[in-house]
Amino acid sequence: xxxxxxxxxxxxxxxxxxxxxxxxxxxxxxxxxxxxxxxxxxxxxxxxxxxxxxxxxxxxxxxxxxxxxxxxxxxxxxxxxxxxxxxxxxxxxxxxxxxxxxxxxxxxxxxxxxxxxxxxxxxxxxxxxxxxxxxxxxxxxxxxxxxxxxxxxxxxxxxxxxxxxxxxxxxxxxxxxxxxxxxxxxxxxxxxxxxxxxxxxxxxxxxxxxxxxxxxxxxxxxxxxxxxxxxxxxxxxxxxxxxxxxxxxxxxxxxxxxxxxxxxxxxxxxxxxxxxxxxxxxxxxxxxxxxxxxxxxxxxxxxxxxxxxxxxxxxxxxxxxxxxxxxxxxxx
Amino acid sequence: xxxxxxxxxxxxxxxxxxxxxxxxxxxxxxxxxxxxxxxxxxxxxxxxxxxxxxxxxxxxxxxxxxxxxxxxxxxxxxxxxxxxxxxxxxxxxxxxxxxxxxxxxxxxxxxxxxxxxxxxxxxxxxxxxxxxxxxxxxxxxxxxxx
Lengths: 332, 146
Ligand code: SF4
Hints:
The complex is a heterodimer of chains A (332) and B (146).
Chain A: H1 2-37, H2 47-57, H3 68-88, H4 104-125, H5 128-162, H6 171-176, H7 185-205, H8 217-220, H9 230-255, H10 261-264, H11 269-298, H12 304-331
Chain B: H1 5-9, E1 12-17, H2 23-32, E2 44-45, E3 54-58, E4 61-62, H3 65-75, E5 81-85, H4 87-91, E6 101-103, E7 113-115, H5 122-142
Parallel strand pairs in B: 1-2, 1-3, 3-5, 5-7
Antiparallel strand pairs in B: 4-6
Bound molecules: iron/sulfur cluster.
The site of iron/sulfur cluster has 13 residues of chain B, from α2 and α4.
């Protein structure tokens, strides 16, 4: 009993450290590749590590107007929430550590926690910039949560209709039964639409351009983060890095849970997992590359009204259409 | 505490114009463009003094900017460095003895590095930022690394 517990603690630590490291590397890649696309040389790959170490050295200012305990607590909450998310996701083709204790619905809620923590932190900062940023973040959440929820739920619903009795919202079940093979032509189009919706929700969930409206540096001076400095800022920075891995892994688990090891004929053993982990890293990178990096370079920031309209009408429409197509696929 | 090496590699700068003609500000922006690309040294422009390590200040201090400049300086978390960009920040330059000018920056807040020029070249600005950090390090050392 205690041996399994110890084992779980070890695995948890490895997942946390590994996930953070991975997030920082992806963040470095993000900055490097964005720079290259703009014709610049760009910072070194380990730039995010420099940033975090530097932020830890800096003074941690709590403004006079701030509600100090809330202001200091929220970065912790945000970091803890994304850290917890790592335990519920299948990383590198392995079973999620806490897979038996939570499913897709829990992930949906946990995903909202870091954003809510930032909102509360922004309101607690007592600065007009941070307050405006927090309000914008709330509007953004109201806008993108609906298509995100539709996407995740439609996948679960489809699986439940194909395999009645299975735990369809468990990510392990979802990842081991890729829907692409189960659906007919109508459902295929539906899945494609749902995938598009998820890809567009991803930058919004990560507050990246064109949806970085709550943090708009040039107009509201960093928005929610405007008053954060030093250690607190470093925690938000880390949470952002890990969230990138989380969104990437979620997309991979839902839509591309395939491994290479079976194809190459080296299932099981060390080499099988090495190949699977490497392939998983590449898949997450591809998702981040197209959902975040390319989009961030190619587009400018939208206005909050434009972003809300974009999510409420076209993106919700796309995801609803995807859902209807999946339903039709079952009926026809 | 001694500054870690990473500090030098991740400088976030905040740009304050206290009454410049905008010439120096445009040169600062030029340093961010692909031609000079300061991000390869980890230098990034931030939107708020709370995130800043280096304050890049241009222009003579005009009367309305006086309290604001002090406030921005106080808002910046330690350790921080102040770099004055351009002739008029260093000496009041062409605005010398203007009715609306309090004086050069170092009459208001402590300055670490002066970058001369009207306007300063982007290379000089980058050099100034790096020198400011070198100065911070020697300051920390002379304080006995407390
Ligand atoms: S130094 Fe020259 S270019 Fe720079 S702000 Fe002053 S007058 Fe303008």
